Amino acid sequence: MNVFAYPEPLAELVMALARLPGIGPKTAGRLAFYLLRHEEAALKLASAAERAVREITECEICGNYTDVQPCRVCSAPNRDAALLCVVEQPRDIASLEKTGEFSGYYHVLGGVLSPLDGIGPDRLNIASLLRRLSGVREVVLALNPTVEGEATASYLSSLLKPRGTAVSRLAHGLPVGGDLEYADEVTIARALEGRRRL
To answer: Tens digits of per-residue pLDDT, 157-182?
Structure first.
């Protein structure tokens, strides 16, 4: 798609949309033309994006995105203060909260260890995690099952266990509705490792 064939404001919109994750040049062009045809939707989108950027900050306790301090999760009195779930990014909290299964509090690391990208322990919210351990019985590591996620989980475990804190990890395995014949060896091995009695 040659954005230079577009008028400058339209080309700028297409290029801005194409910078979003998961949006290629063709999709960016379709979205741009949609927004031009639907002025009200375009203005609402622009207004919502501007408001979010202006009003959303990180929670001073857990690092979640919020418009109040502390965030609504950290200020909820009915949660279990002995449980702390560590996630990579704020969006992970929303995924866990949708299940309704976790009753503790959260802590956002802000990423994972990645030496190749220059991300060491000092670039993550690890110091603030260690300061939050008073009264915490168990830390659940809800990190993505990537090489970096596994390395980060191992590093955190080595810091937390000597402090007497129980450390657990989300189970890995086969998705509901998945077929064994389509699962890779690592997924099947993790499913066997995490099996439980019925």
So the answer is: 999 999 999 999 988 776 777 776 77
CATH number for the domain including 97? 3.40.1360.10
166-169 and 138-142 beta bridge pairing: parallel
Looking at residue 100, its amino acid is G
Q: Is residue 178 part of a domain?
A: no
Helix (H) or strand (E) holding 87: strand 83-87
H-helix or E-strand containing 106?
Answer: strand 105-108
Global pTM? 0.83
Length of the chain: 198
Structural domain of 93? 80-169
22-36 burial: b if 16+ Cβ within 10 Å, else e: ebeeeebbebbeebe
